């Protein structure tokens, strides 16, 4: 085996699966079992106003991603997954987990709309506020 960039990146991805699986499964455990909602839908380092509403979704995202990463590790070590298969599964899992967690964090936090758009998003039946001259 010749050591080149391709081999180095393969080893980096494989070795990175270990801490990723650990942290994702630990986060799922903390959310689902310990009821620690401090890591649910984080945006700019803050949890949403009602993190318990989004906790099941975050727990499932982390549990599925961690389980798939653990299965890929086991499959590679057992020699049952060929290179292209485990690289595709690992890469897709990482990207899907990041995108889903990002989307959940943006869904959980209310948007800070400009003032001219906030009136439209409120109750349409409410009378418009008096304009200050």
What keyword list fits this structure?
133 residues
The radius of gyration computed from the alpha-carbon positions, rounded to a whole number of angstroms, is 21 Å
Distance between the termini: 77 Å
According to DSSP, the number of beta strands is 0
Average pLDDT, all residues: 86
Number of helices: 4
What composes the largest sheet?
A: none
What is the share of helical residues?
Answer: 55-70%
Strand % is under 5%
Class from secondary-structure proportions: mainly alpha
Uncertain regions: pLDDT < 50 for 5+ in a row? none
Would you spell out the secondary-structure blueprint of this structure?
Blueprint: H1 5-32, H2 51-78, H3 83-108, H4 115-121
Give a short summary of the structure:
With 133 residues, the protein is mostly helical. The protein has helices spanning 5-32, 51-78, 83-108, 115-121.
């Amino acid at each position: 085996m010749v050591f080149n960039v391709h081999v180095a990146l393969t080893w980096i991805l494989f070795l990175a699966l270990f801490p990723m699986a650990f942290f994702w499964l630990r986060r799922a455990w903390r959310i689902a079992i310990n009821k620690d909602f401090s890591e649910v839908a984080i945006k700019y380092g803050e949890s949403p106003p009602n993190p318990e509403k989004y906790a099941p979704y975050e727990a499932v995202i982390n549990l599925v991603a961690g389980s798939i990463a653990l299965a890929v590790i086991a499959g590679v070590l057992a020699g049952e997954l060929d290179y292209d298969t485990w690289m595709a599964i690992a890469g897709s899992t990482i990207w899907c987990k990041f995108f889903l967690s990002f989307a959940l964090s943006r869904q959980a936090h209310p948007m800070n709309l400009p003032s001219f758009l906030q009136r439209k998003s409120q109750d349409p039946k409410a009378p418009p506020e008096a304009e200050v001259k």
